[in-house]
Amino acid sequence: MAKSKVLVVGGTGYIGRRIVKASLEQGYPTYVLQRPEIGLDVDKVQILLSFKKQGARLVEGSFSDIQSLIEVVKQVDVVICTMSGVHFRSHNILLQLKLVEAIKAAGNVKRFLPSEFGMDPARMEHALEPGRVTFDEKMIVRRAIEEANIPHTYVSANCFAGYFVGNLCQMDRLTPPKDKVNIYGDGNVKAAFMDEDDVGTYTIKTIDDPRTLNKTVFLRPPENILSQRQLVENWEKLSGKKLQKVTIPQEDFLASMKGLDYPSQVGVGHFFHIFYEGCLTNFEIGEGAEEASRLYPEVRYTRMEEFLKLYA
Ligand code: NDP
Ligand code: GFR
């Protein structure tokens, strides 16, 4: 059977570019949305041209012109959207409602993967303000997809290593601290971490798989379920240097939200749920959901000791 034609919307983005790469690597006819609004963003243009060089087809469409989105969607079988959702970058999750409208009007799409790739928003009804906005908006998009009966897969990717591992789970930095490391509570709450290239690989594995139709797929491979203390120990072994551990009690961490700007408040909320509450690992993956490393045991996913070597 011919491989599905895949459209990536948001393909020049942080996770989007990994998904385009994985789609090409796995031999899918790959289309990438080229938005006229990118204008003089030379980095985006160069990324798009690099995709074209690797065999992707660039297709013009704009979120300001629904007809253009419909024409683009009509050319493919699968649509993956990686719309921005990190507040200090940009956050346009609800723009996807236009894409849902276009998919509904086109009527040909076999699978739609909306921009999720983080905590499962269906499990975050209790989330703190203002960070809950991320999950509330993703649920609005899910409801629109399901009301339109669009076949879908939701990918819950846990923590991107680039945002959570290189910095040993510290906020406001992306590289390891030099002397002291903030430990959230006792530091033993389990989270789950993913190399972004593996997020791309697993995402593309799901698109033609009947087992993932209308399901949530969690990326939670067993060896990447780790506590913050385990990450710090891995780093200390790698760097040969002990870090001074500074314990941050839960109430102090939450109190730190006061006076921060909005994007930082969002981040504190997300970090709280992950590292104090354990929201990524405090449940079994059951009915109506799958775990990617069980579905695709052939994928040799990157372990976090390996990932950390990059920073040594
Ligand atoms: P980016 O900030 O990289 O943005 C992705 C793309 O969104 C852009 O490349 C752009 O597409 C598109 N976009 C942004 N603004 C607009 C607009 N106004 N109109 C049309 N398109 C727009 O996104 P991320 O990769 O950081 O986030 C993607 C998803 O991953 C989100 O759902 C986020 O919540 C999640 N995430 C999860 C993390 C985790 O640790 N689990 C970490 C970070 C993000 P184009 O390429 O066309 O310009
Ligand atoms: C893990 O799941 C998610 C992570 C998610 O479902 C949605 C968004 C994210 C964000 C995190 C919290 O907002 O992606 C990365 C991270 C963004 C962030 C990192 C925010 C504030 C910070 O200080 C920060 O330091 C690394």
From TrEMBL:
Annotated GO biological processes are:
lignan biosynthetic process
Q: What Pfam families does this protein map onto?
A: NmrA (PF05368)
Domain NmrA-like: start-end pairs:
3-308
User: Which InterPro entries does the entry mention?
Assistant: NAD(P)-bd_dom_sf, NmrA-like, NmrA-type/Isoflavone_red_sf, PCBER-like
> Per UniProt, which keywords does this protein have?
NADP, Oxidoreductase
Recorded hits in SUPFAM superfamilies, A to Z, give: NAD(P)-binding Rossmann-fold domains
Molecular functions (GO terms): pinoresinol reductase activity
Q: Which family does it belong to?
A: Belongs to the NmrA-type oxidoreductase family. Isoflavone reductase subfamily.
Name of protein: Isoflavone reductase homolog
* Organism of this sequence: Punica granatum (Pomegranate)
